[in-house]
């Protein structure tokens, strides 16, 4: 049996589908996959090391194409299909090239060819060659939904601001997903809101509000960097010039100041296409909108108005009606890892392998084997992020790849999130119940508030339309909403809650000087979740398409179908941060490697208690090998001559640590041994 797989973006601005919740058998574990929409005229191919060496000797890289490979057998096949050219998938970045080669990612090339044969026909010919190790179709990413955000009007904003009784961000009272008092959505004996059915961030804020060293890469539509509530939370590549056509920092991408627009291959992030939904900015707002600035909403890890919060790196994969491809996805994933992101926020994924094909037209990978066979390059890039993002001298070694579970009401999460190395997020309502659209079951890792408009069909007043308040309020560009804020729902809105909590936890780890392996931190995130199985019982009534047709189509969802299928529970920020206090290992001042004549910069405050309050002195046993200067709280180690020396750093309060400095020609530019 074959299953056609659609690589679908699970956008939150959507209408939940029917949730009949009948028992649905999982697809048979047939590894044969019928290819869906993909780019004709090109394939992503992993060549053997021998062919790769030939290509490198010929100078093939990103932007440098070659018309022949140098392998007779390979060239013979490609000659049959017409003219062709080869281009390396990942640009050369001196800082990460060693890791790129270690993982074999340098062996992947884009093969472009003529129209005489289809991509499938060429793939079949290439797959039998010994010079070819793997073939990946360049899948087209398609949006699963075309719905738009529900704008917060100026009139509604004025009413909400006038009625608030607390200081801070004026829209905070609308954010049940952040702090749920249990006083919303109650009508007579019907209770659709429970106290603390949120992400438990209020008490966590007493411990941390975020740290600017933690970077979350948002792979989505572009994030509007000039939004008043987001501007201070944007990551800046200070080695680049916004809009420059020159690659000033040599990372392979020109002008990548806020991130990179992979779909249009430019450093200019766009958000103003008339068909943009504002989804990327909405996701970013949940994670890191600036807190306590008297502007709009609050976020999970957006600082407190004085202390900056986590930073958002925009990796744009969608623009208007344009959708990215596998090539653009894998470049974005690796870019995020190589440029400092430790959390990968991905509100997209394959359709669930258990999706109702009558509603969705196709089901996605149903097993790990199918996923790895269908998307080997995507899998390799994501594993690279999980393995190599972060630093052995920071709060996390490796990264966290966080995905939406999917919106097909299917009893199985979609891939890639269902991969056991990643995190797959299901959506809940304001009473801990599974949202009517959410996927659940095998592959689901954890849950978070995603909104549930059709469930709150009976909540409407002069400020809110049907069920609107039951959704997630966040930031969007002004062309999407005149106020810059709008409501959305979906597992794609649940996902940034987990990304935000993870980023807040890592921020606290920075404060405590704790260090984790990525798998260890992932497990801590799951272990501290709030159990919610007890709430998946009985039936919940909802009205399908309430936003369009009103409450005229009542349906029922059997919550017991979701019991045991919502992952470890609902993400809990307070529990996570408290668990961090006694977990991981203590960070100490690192050993340093530097090339002769080069400089490595280290911020010592990260390795000492109350570090930012202190000053430091550094001494070396052999001062002929290395020197050190200080400027604005940073240490600058300059290599003089090759060799190794013991060193000591002493803080002004007497704390002392010992380390080793090695000066050698072959060294990573990040300075760590």
Keywords:
single chain, 673 residues, alpha/beta, Rossmann fold, Immunoglobulin-like, four-stranded antiparallel sheet, 14 helices, 23% strand, disordered C terminus
Structure commentary:
The structure is a single chain. This protein has 673 residues and is an alpha/beta fold. The protein folds into three domains: 38-139; 150-580, Rossmann fold (3-Layer(aba) Sandwich), CATH 3.40.50.200; 588-663, Immunoglobulin-like (Sandwich). 20% of the residues lie in helices and 23% in strands. The protein is built from 14 helices and 34 strands. Strands 12, 13, 14, 15, 16, 19, 20 and 21 form an eight-stranded mixed beta sheet that branches. It has a four-stranded antiparallel beta sheet with strand order 5-6-4-7. The longest helix has 22 residues, at 491-512. The radius of gyration is 25 Å and the shape is globular. Mean pLDDT is 89; it is low at 1-35 and 667-673.
Proportion in β-strands: 15-25%
Largest sheet: 8 strands, mixed
What is the number of helices?
A: 14
Q: Describe the global form.
A: globular
Helix/strand class: alpha/beta
Provide a brief overview of the structure.
The protein has 673 residues and is of the alpha/beta class. It has 14 helices and 34 strands. Helix 6 (279-288) runs parallel beside helix 11 (491-512) and helix 7 (326-338) runs parallel beside helix 10 (376-388).
Topology:
Elements: E1 3-4, E2 7-9, E3 33-34, E4 38-47, H1 49-57, H2 72-80, E5 84-88, H3 97-102, E6 108-113, H4 119-127, E7 132-139, E8 142-143, E9 150-151, H5 154-163, E10 186-187, E11 190-191, E12 215-221, E13 259-261, H6 279-288, E14 311-319, E15 322-323, H7 326-338, E16 343-346, E17 349-350, H8 357-360, H9 368-374, H10 376-388, E18 396-397, E19 400-404, E20 423-428, E21 446-449, E22 472-475, E23 485-488, H11 491-512, E24 514-517, H12 518-527, E25 539-543, H13 546-549, E26 554-558, H14 573-580, E27 585-586, E28 592-594, E29 599-602, E30 616-620, E31 626-631, E32 634-639, E33 643-651, E34 656-663
Parallel strand pairs: 1-3, 2-8, 12-14, 12-16, 13-14, 16-19, 18-24, 19-20, 20-21, 28-34
Antiparallel strand pairs: 2-17, 4-6, 4-7, 5-6, 9-23, 10-11, 14-15, 22-23, 24-27, 25-26, 29-32, 30-33, 31-32, 33-34
Helix pairs in contact: 6-11, 7-10, 11-14
């Amino acid at each position: 049996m074959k299953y056609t797989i659609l690589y679908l973006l699970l956008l939150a601005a959507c209408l939940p589908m029917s949730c009949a919740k009948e028992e649905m058998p999982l697809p048979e574990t047939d590894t044969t996959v019928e290819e869906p929409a993909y780019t004709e005229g090109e394939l992503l191919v992993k060549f053997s090391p021998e062919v790769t060496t030939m290509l490198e000797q010929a100078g093939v890289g990103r932007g440098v194409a070659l018309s022949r490979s140098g392998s007779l057998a390979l060239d013979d096949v490609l000659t049959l299909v017409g003219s062709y050219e080869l281009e390396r998938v990942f640009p050369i970045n001196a800082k990460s090239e060693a890791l790129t080669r270690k993982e074999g990612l340098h062996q992947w090339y884009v093969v472009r060819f003529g129209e005489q044969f289809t991509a499938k026909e060429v793939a079949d010919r290439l797959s039998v060659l010994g010079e070819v190790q793997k073939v990946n179709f360049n899948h087209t990413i398609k949006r699963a939904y075309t719905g738009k955000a529900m704008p917060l009007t100026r009139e509604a904003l004025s009413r909400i601001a006038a009625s608030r009784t607390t200081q801070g961000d004026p829209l905070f009272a609308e954010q049940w997903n952040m702090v749920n008092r249990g006083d919303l959505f109650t009508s007579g004996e019907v209770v659709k809101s429970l106290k603390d059915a949120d992400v438990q961030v209020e008490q966590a804020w007493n411990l941390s509000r975020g740290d600017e060293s933690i970077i979350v890469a948002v792979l989505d539509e572009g994030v509007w960097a000039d939004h008043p509530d987001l501007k201070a939370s944007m990551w800046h590549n200070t080695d680049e010039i916004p809009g420059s056509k020159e690659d000033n920092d040599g990372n392979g991408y020109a002008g990548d100041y806020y991130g990179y627009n992979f779909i249009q291959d430019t450093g200019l992030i766009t958000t103003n296409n008339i068909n943009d939904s504002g989804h990327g900015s909405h996701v970013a707002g949940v994670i890191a909108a600036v807190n306590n600035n008297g502007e709009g909403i609050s976020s999970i890890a957006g600082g407190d108005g004085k202390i900056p919060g986590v930073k958002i790196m925009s990796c744009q994969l969608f623009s208007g009606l344009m959708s990215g491809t596998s090539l653009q996805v894998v470049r974005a994933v690796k870019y995020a890892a190589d440029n400092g992101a430790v959390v990968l926020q991905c509100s997209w994924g394959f359709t669930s392998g258990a999706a109702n094909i009558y509603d969705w037209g196709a089901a996605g990978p149903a097993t790990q084997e199918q996923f790895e066979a269908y998307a080997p390059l995507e899998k390799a890039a994501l594993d690279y992020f999980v393995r190599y993002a972060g630093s052995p001298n920071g709060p996390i070694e490796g990264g966290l790849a966080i995905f939406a579970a999917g919106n097909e009401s299917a009893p199985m999460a979609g891939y890639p999130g269902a991969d056991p190395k990643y995190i797959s997020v299901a959506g809940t309502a304001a009473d801990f119940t599974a949202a009517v659209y959410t996927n659940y079951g095998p592959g689901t890792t954890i849950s978070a508030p995603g909104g549930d408009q059709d469930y709150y069909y009976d909540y409407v007043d002069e400020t809110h339309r049907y069920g609107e308040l039951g959704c997630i309020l966040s930031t969007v560009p002004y062309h999407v909403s005149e106020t810059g804020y709008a409501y959305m729902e979906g597992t794609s809105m649940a996902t940034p809650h987990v990304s935000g909590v993870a980023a807040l936890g890592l921020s606290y780890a920075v404060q405590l000087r704790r260090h984790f392996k990525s798998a260890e931190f992932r497990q801590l995130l799951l272990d501290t979740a709030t159990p919610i199985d007890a709430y998946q019982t009985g039936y919940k009534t909802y009205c399908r398409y309430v936003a369009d047709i009103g409450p005229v189509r009542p349906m029922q969802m059997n919550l017991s179908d979701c019991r045991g299928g919502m992952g470890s529970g609902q993400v809990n920020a307070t529990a996570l941060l408290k668990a961090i206090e006694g977990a991981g290992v203590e960070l100490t001042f690192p050993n340093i490697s530097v090339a002769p004549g080069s400089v490595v910069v280290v911020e010592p405050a990260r390795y000492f208690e109350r570090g930012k309050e202190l000053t430091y002195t550094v001494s070396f046993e052999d001062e002929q090998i290395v020197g050190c200067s200080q400027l604005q709280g940073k240490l600058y180690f300059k290599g003089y001559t090759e060799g190794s020396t013991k060193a000591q750093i002493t803080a002004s309060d007497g704390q002392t640590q010992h380390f080793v400095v090695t000066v050698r020609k072959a060294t990573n530019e990040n300075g760590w041994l």
